[in-house]
């Protein structure tokens, strides 16, 4: 057992403080630090110039295990998460087998505990095998050791409105939430990139904004009708932001997430024909990017979620139409949020703590995460250096996959340390 003393950290609100981490919790915070204990080592960390954030929580991670251990495993994905400053991730259900039973979600949860890099909260599938036809055993997953509260067919849309309604009704019994991947399948058959003038010019089939917006509008209405919680995954268009804003104004229990790549990158990158930039939903226009940033700033978008979607090179080193959708993102998320939201003056660090820790923990009903940095709270802490600058090197990742869209880009900031219940998982930027 070791106690940790963090000296001169800047808290999200701007004040500078020392923190003592002991027995898994924050034992003291402020200028007056807890005295060392007899027989217990005390490790001191100089945090001058570093921001201390509550440990980040990802509401949307693909860990690929079971089934695609060539792309990622729970061990490697959570190592990447810890390096990105995360202390908890929600593991999406589109594995093989699909996480649609108590057995599979318990397996993923157990693998997370064994790896020990961060907490793994499995997401349960809404429908059996993501087939979109029959509801999965939602109650059994909720009651399992994995305590599932978030249900999603992510990768696929729960397109049948009657099934979506029943899922929304069902999860109320255990305070669950349906996280919808909003994509009307009939409007996106063969779709490859954002629909617009550019998709025509590049000869890649267009993916219209309305395919996302129509489902979000429908689901907001359904959630209001049955009085349930709805969460919208990876919002990517200005129209989607408008619809979520409208639903919130109505007082409906709707939350939404945006991904770092949709906050920074645009569909212009498709002109490279480099499938690294192929993602679902697709990169959109500069106007959409601006609307997402504004929505995140004013709270219409509750959460930044990574949608970390690792793919091995053989699924990406091919022609655009044949390539898999998805980008990695755990190790770059905080830097992209700094670049797009903090350095632009749209969000302060307290806002980052809310969008990347408190809100995702609340939506996922993850007790023990997303708590403010205060005495007695679990010592889940990320130390971040906002003055650092790095050039993204895709080979220097804990992930098994290299499909980062930021390769070669200069990004601000660096995660220096991550503590999970008082135990360092990352120190000096490297896994412990
Ligand atoms: N985002 C993606 O492009 N891909 C995700 C699925 C998803 O999040 O819809 C994946 O599992 O690879
Ligand atoms: Zn999705
Ligand atoms: Zn996803």
Automatic annotation (TrEMBL):
Pathway: Pyrimidine metabolism; UMP biosynthesis via de novo pathway; (S)-dihydroorotate from bicarbonate: step 3/3. Zn(2+) 2 binds at residues 154, 181, 234. Binds 2 Zn(2+) ions per subunit. The keyword Hydrolase applies. It comes from the Bacteria. It is an enzyme of class 3 (hydrolase). Residues 51-238 form the Dihydroorotase catalytic domain. HAMAP family: PyrC_classI_B (MF_00220_B). GO terms for molecular function: allantoinase activity; dihydroorotase activity; zinc ion binding. Keywords: Hydrolase, Metal-binding, Pyrimidine biosynthesis, Zinc. CDD domains: DHOase_IIa (cd01317). The keyword Transmembrane helix does not apply. The lineage of its organism: Bacteria, Bacillati, Actinomycetota, Actinomycetes, Propionibacteriales. Substrate binds at residues 62-64, 94, 280, 311, 325-326. This is Dihydroorotase. GO terms for cellular component: cytoplasm. GO terms for biological process: 'de novo' UMP biosynthetic process; purine nucleobase catabolic process. The active site is at residue 307. Gene3D superfamilies: Metal-dependent hydrolases, Urease, subunit C, domain 1. Belongs to the metallo-dependent hydrolases superfamily. DHOase family. Class I DHOase subfamily. It catalyses: (S)-dihydroorotate + H2O = N-carbamoyl-L-aspartate + H(+). Its cofactor is Zn(2+). Its EC number is 3.5.2.3. Catalyzes the reversible cyclization of carbamoyl aspartate to dihydroorotate. The gene is pyrC. Zn(2+) 1 binds at residues 60, 62, 154, 307.
